[in-house]
Amino acid sequence: MTYTAVSCPQKVVIKIGSSTLTTSESSIDYAYLEQLSQQIAQVKECGWQPVIVTSAAIACGLEALGIKKRPSDMPSLQAAASVGQSALQAAYARAFEPFGITTSTVLLTRRDTADRKAYLHAHDTLLRLLDLGVVPIVNENDTVSVEQIRFGDNDTLAALTACLIDADLMIILSDIDGLYTDNPATNRSATLIEQVDRIGPEILSIAGGAGSTVGSGGMITKIKAARVLMAAGIPMVICHGRTEHNITDICAGKSLGTRFVAANKPHEITAKKLWLALGDAARGSLVVDTGAKEALISHGKSLLCVGVKQVEGSFDAGDIVDIKDASGHVFARGKIAAQSDEVELACGHSREALRSNRVLSHLADRSLVHRDDLIVFE
Fold first, then answer.
1. What's the Cα-to-Cα distance from 288 to each of 258, 322, 332, 335, rounded to whole Å?
2. Fewer Cβ atoms within 10 Å of its own Cβ: the N or the C terminal residue of the chain?
3. Which residues are within 8 A (CB) of 133 and not within 5 positions of it... i.e. 6 or more apart?
């Protein structure tokens, strides 16, 4: 089979789920890894610069330790990750060796990306690795990650990586063919959605919970990743990881799985805003009225106290918060300029009302979320 070379180097992030890369809770599918490396070598020859976001460090560690069933306690999981991370990277290195491709290890946690300076250092490192012809193997640092700093799923990590390097494409290799109109396991009439142009409440509502016991994500995490990528102008494809020639076919432009089509990249989507969208976990939420939603989406405005109807969660000034409409749909995210207690007191009040309040007057002439610190997903 022959493949068409791209006219200039293009970056592709390939995320491989645990359920795709393993044969059980505690065994890596090495034959699959060899087939995967062959495809990646082929697209690399055609001018693509691939980055792999991998799962399965814990599964690989359980295999090495002879543990058949995945434990539930954090120390055992982190110990398995510690053993498995080196074994997994060695497996990738062996798989790519016949093609003369060097791999590298890039381990991240939210702590590494919540800080903007660290985020930019990761950006520079990944781009330099690609310039050197290396295939970076990115994974969450499960050995040190705890609930407060972990991504929780590698779909989010993959989207962050794609934004870090300004990728031209992201591919998620999963244990399902793509996004369906309903859960195909329970509804035999469910049909595959081949293309998604906008992610609204209706798309989010058909995404189910977590899938297999091996992985930590589900369709909802993939949809949320796609939502940010589409805002960034990066298309994303979800397809079955075991489909023959899936990576080479997708990179060649063939239709496979579900493609999330990115609109023309908006001028306002800067690296800073991508960092806001994915670099740190939201500490709370603001529910806004229809007028505020329209102002943020259609008119490029900042969020003011008068447009906020409700505050959810506890946060400090400078934290990241989600912005929802009355139905609970998250349509934006940004950096809040005040703590949650102040916002609860100030929400719904006009600037004139705030100016006359000696406690809240400092919020009268400032935005709760400034446009420069806000990313809108629609």
1. 32, 11, 11, 15
2. N
3. 101, 102
- 286 three-class SS: strand
Instruction: Name the pairing type of β-strands 48-54 and 10-16.
Output: parallel
Q: 330 near 297, Cβ under 8 Å?
A: no
Q: How many CA atoms lie within 13 A of 238 on its CB side?
A: 28
Sign of CA dihedral 279, 19, 227, 306: negative
Q: What's the confidence (pLDDT) of residue 340?
A: 96
User: Are 340 and 314 in contact, with CB atoms under 8 Å apart?
Assistant: yes
pLDDT at residue 276, as a whole number: 75
Q: How many Å apart are CA 98 and CA 144, to the nearest integer?
A: 33
Total residue count of the chain as it appears in this document: 378
Return the structure tokens found at 192.
């595959």
Alpha-carbon dihedral of residues 55, 58, 61, 67, nearest 10 degrees? -130
Determine the Cα–Cα distance for residues 191 and 183; give it in Å rounded to an integer.
Answer: 9
Lowest mean per-residue pLDDT among 204-213, 257-266, 340-349: 204-213
Rounded Cα distance between 304 and 300, Å, is 13
pTM over 0.90: no
Q: What is the pLDDT of residues 280-317, one digit of tens each?
A: 678 999 999 999 999 999 898 999 999 999 999 999 99
Rounded Cα–Cα distance for residues 33 and 23 (Å): 11
Of the candidates 261, 255, 230, 260, the residue with the CA atom closest to the CA atom of residue 243? 255
DSSP 15-41: EE-HHHHEEETTEE-HHHHHHHHHHHH
- CA dist., res. 66 & res. 61, Å (int): 8
Which residues is 210 bridged to in the sheet? 218
